[in-house]
Amino acid sequence: MAISGVKIILVEPAGPLNVGSVARVMKNFGFNQLVLVNPQCDPLGIEARKMAVHAWDILESTVSVATLPEALQGCRRAIATTGIAHHWEAPLEKPSTALPWLLEEIGQPSALIFGREDRGLTNQELNYAQRFVRIPTSSSYPSLNLATAVAICCYELAKEDKGTEEEGGREGEGENGSLRLVVSTSDSELAPLDVVEAYYQQLESLLLKIGYLYSHTAASRMEKFRQLYNRAQLQTREVSMLRGILRQVEWALENKSDRENS
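Structure (tokenized):
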């Protein structure tokens, strides 16, 4: 997939100067999909336009949504950026290691998520991503400006995208100069994130109902399930199968209750 298919998602950006700078960086590296989750500033105001310079078209085509799940609609892969070490098993990777993964799914949208300028992403928001990136910085001053972080990640993706094109050209030449078709081995049936999220919601509801989860610990326990399924990279048909199992369990519970009450 070309980098133009990668969504750059900013969660609750507060600074119009940052939004404008992000638009300019995106234009520099060939990105064109900017999504803002509950923006705390005017992305089309004078300050944003001033920093965008020649990237006004990016600002004008910006999509604003209320929640992160809405921003991820249709995406099959998502990487979140964070500067904080978390307790979960998923590793924090370098941009050069993790970001090329977003380009593997040809023709399928993917997303790169950035948090608030002052406090990044919450644990709940991080749950929507499958992998996590941390940009290495000096321990004496580790905090990065939002636009700078976006620039570093966009550069790494653009570098990988160009490298892939060059390698593809060489691989496209067979013996005696003949051309051969290079076919991607990536699985086109990888379930969209919103489809998987609907499964998580159904699973949590059922586990609460049968007493496996309790309301005060549900979030932390569901993190483990999310990590497990993220490693599995579920296909659409597999999510359908899992949801079918949950529906059958729910049906069995309801019928058992009806029989006991009759």
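Residues 163-187 have pLDDT under 50 and may be disordered. The longest strand covers residues 6-11.
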